[in-house]
Structures are given as structure tokens and as C-alpha cells.
User: Fold this.
Amino acid sequence: MPTSAELRPLLILLALLLGLLGLALSGLRQVLRWLQSHPRWAVAGTFGLAYLLPWGLYLGVLGVSTRLNPQALPWSTQILILGQPWLYLWQMLALALSTPWPPPMTLAGRGWASLRCQGAAFLVGLGLGGLGGLGYALLLAGFEGRWPGAVERLPGLPPLALGLWLGIGLLLAPWVEEHFFRATLLNAAAVRWGRPRAVLLSAALFALGQGRPLLLLPAFILGLALGGLALRRGSWEAAAWAHMGINLVLGGLAWYLLI
Assistant:
């Protein structure tokens, strides 16, 4: 058992990290509120804060750390395959803060009604997840031929981090991502460019936001399917249920495949 003297620095570090996270989220919330009051910049600003900013910072830090550690995978190799749990958490929290949530009881009632009306789309998502996993496996086979053994060097996640990652990927990500990409963004783009182009744009940005080049093509195709499903069923919630099915399959294959 660690002594209190040994635990004290860890507890102080944890408190500092939680404080920094709280300040970051508080600042993020203020910026998102400002964006929501300026509709012209709301969609582009939210995408930049949730996806482009953290991925840009991460890739810069990764480039520096790779140079300092000669035993690490090459920078170009890591960005092709490696998911980053903490960036995924930031993305989902940013989208969650930008989503207008109803009161808890209203949310529970809407969730039950959505399950009854659109829940069958979950089964569609299971099939799409299988196809997405197959597509990724084919791309990964080509990648392994170029860099043999690289995938085996990918780090695992501690049980707590893995549970948090999977919980967010199954319960939060499908709803906040689909509300943003297949409701807010798709509707705004459809008014300006029409529905077919809006589906293409939402799928392209959805794939780009994943930040993993090997997932770019599978995520784009899945984004097209989710956009088409939302339009066909007349509700972005159908896409959210399908997204849950996709992530259930992909998360079962590997932790870094959640989208």
C-alpha cells in the first residue's frame, strides 16, 4: 500500500489537472456560447474548436516527442493508425457543450420516443459497422505490408481509460456528433447548396474530424450512409442510433476504431 507521503504528490497533480481541465472547459463553453449567438460562424467555429484545434496541437506535440524518442514509431506511421483517447474526449465534450440539451425528464421522454420510432436504425448501424471494419482491415493490410509490425507496437489502454473511451463512444459520441453533422451542419448546408451536396460536405468533414488517415475513407462512406439515413427517415436521431451500432462493432474490434 502506498503511504500518504507517496500519494500526496499524485493527489496534488490530479487536483492540478482537474483544475486545468475545468478552466479549459469553462473557457470553451464561453467561446461556444459566443459562437451560438453568431450563427454565421457557429458551425465552422464549433468544428474548428472541437476537431481542428486539438488535432493540430496534438500532431505538433507528437512530432516533437517523436524526435526526442528514437524508439518511438515514426511520426508519419503513428498519425496513420493511432487514435488518441483524450482528444476524442475533448471533441465529444466540445460538441456536448454546443448541443442544446432539454431538462433531464424531457430528455428521458424524448429518448424513449426516439427508441420506439428510430431504434431500428441501430440494426442498420451494426451492418454498417461490419462493412466499415472490413474496409479498415483491408487498408490496414496494405499498411502492414509497408510498415511490418507497426500495429503490434500500438499501446493498449488501462482498464479505466478503456471503459471511459468505450462509454463515450457508445453513449455520448453518436448523439452529439450526429446532432452536429447530420442536423446542424447538414441543415445549414442544405439551405445553401442543396441536400446532396450537404450530405457530401457533412460526410467529408466527419471523416476529416477523425484525425486518422486510415479511417478517412471508411468514415467518409459511413458518413454518406448516415446522412442518407437521416434524410430518408426524416430525423437525425435515426443516424444517431445507427452510429451507436457502428461504434459497438468497431469498438469491439479495436479501441482506436471508435468514430
